[in-house]
Amino acid sequence: MDKENVPTANIQGPIGRVTRARAKTMGPLGGLPPLHPMVKQDHKRALQPTTKRTLSDDKSVTLVAPIVQAKRRTVFRDITNNHFDASSIKVPSENKVQINKRVKRCAVKKNERVTQSVRAEPEIQKTKATEIITKQSTHELCEANSKLNADFNLAKHSGFGSSSQKGESIIISEVEASNDESIIDIDSKHKDPQMCSLYAAEVYANLRAAELKWTHSIDYMKTVQLEITQEMRGILIDWLVEVCEEYGLASETFYLTVALIDIYLSKKCVGKRRLQLLGITCMLIASKYEEICAPRVEEFCLITDSTYTRADVLEMEHQILDVLSFQLSVPTIKKFLRRFLLAAHSSYKAPAIELEFLANYLAELTQTEYSLLKFLPSLIAASAVYLAKWTLDQDEDPWNATLEHYTSYKASELKVTVLALQDLQLNNTSPLHAIRQKYKQQKYKSVATLISQKPVTPLS
Q1: Parent domain of 318
Q2: Which of 101, 201, 431, 450 has its CA at 20 to 30 Å from residue 362's CA atom?
């Protein structure tokens, strides 16, 4: 009875530390508790802080603990970071070489297939994209050419200004590349994407077509207007030059102002008293379109000595925009002059600032002359560049292949316009002197005082 109850008591009761003396008192069988309770006890001990233990402790603990730790490792082990170890597979040494060769062959073939597919897909996509872009660009160019031809024929039959003489040769598409080696590519130097050099040829081709659509009546003083005259128009524009200088407005604002005045006068009759109101209102609209900080309405009223009120200006603005249908992108002389000067500077080692000022001076002189409205803005811009180059250097032909290509005008086609500009340049008795006084200033290199000593001989 006593021997049977000892293990039971040992199992149910708390199991303490087993020493040699205690094991001896438990009986001949050792009275050791079963293995499973010891596993639980050892597991609890593993969670407790380690204590000092002599080398004579129970060996069952050392036997069971590794088994428990092995199970924990198999459960929580992260196998994703383990690499394949070929040494863990037991393969005869004879077959190891063959297996390694097969594995290498499969890997090489797989890499080749992946590489080919990766290289092939971008090439296929690139080829398809190129074909689509080519088809679209070809279709757009065909439409643009057909549209330009229709405009040429319309201008030819309408007999507007010099367009009837020029015919279909007025606008030559700059999109087509020239095979002439003497033509300099003026767009290749501009690497800045904001310059949009890739689209410059198309932009100016559209401007050449748009200037035919924006043509207005060249005799509106006789057919539309009843009170105002050519001299009144010239006095108004000469005064607007001083207004631009007073407020520091850009030359693009001035050219757009004059264009809006002519378009409105060719469609609506204006009285004498409202002519100045038309001028300041057109400048207000142009400054809103071109300037970063446009003058206020009150400033334009003040510059007229408060002749007109704010309500008058706003009412006139509403009428002008109604007539224009809010279309303000008018191709002016300044837009063509900027590109033609770039073509003229291509033959110089350094940009000639006097050439730019002189061409702008000659172009602005035409704004006060009602008789020059019959010429296209691009023709006046090309003639201004021609006469400016001739005035600065009379030993060299002012026209070359580059200018002929980008302006699409031959030297013989500029004869009438250049001679008209030269008459304005030599006429110092004109009462309209605002433009001359402006370009006599030192900041413009006093180009208004420059006069060609010889007549334009290459055109004669």
Answers
A1: 219-324
A2: 201
